[in-house]
Design a protein that fits this description.
The chain has about 50 residues and is an all-alpha fold. Helix content is about 55%, strand content about 0%. The protein has two helices and no strands.
Length: about 50
């Protein structure tokens, strides 16, 4: 690999959102689904290490 960067963090967020989407059948509105996703990812720490 040429670079030390990875998109693994974002892929993890996307995967978790897709799992929640599969489990969201039965939610009454998109607003509730969106709120669940935002609350779930609210406290994620993004660690950026350069060098």
């Amino acid at each position: 690999f040429s670079f030390r960067y990875s998109n693994g963090f974002l892929e993890g967020i996307n995967n978790k959102s897709k799992v929640m989407k599969r489990n969201a059948y039965g939610f009454r509105s998109f607003k509730h689904f969106k709120a669940k996703i935002l609350l779930n990812d609210l406290y994620k720490e993004i660690g950026i290490h350069l060098g």
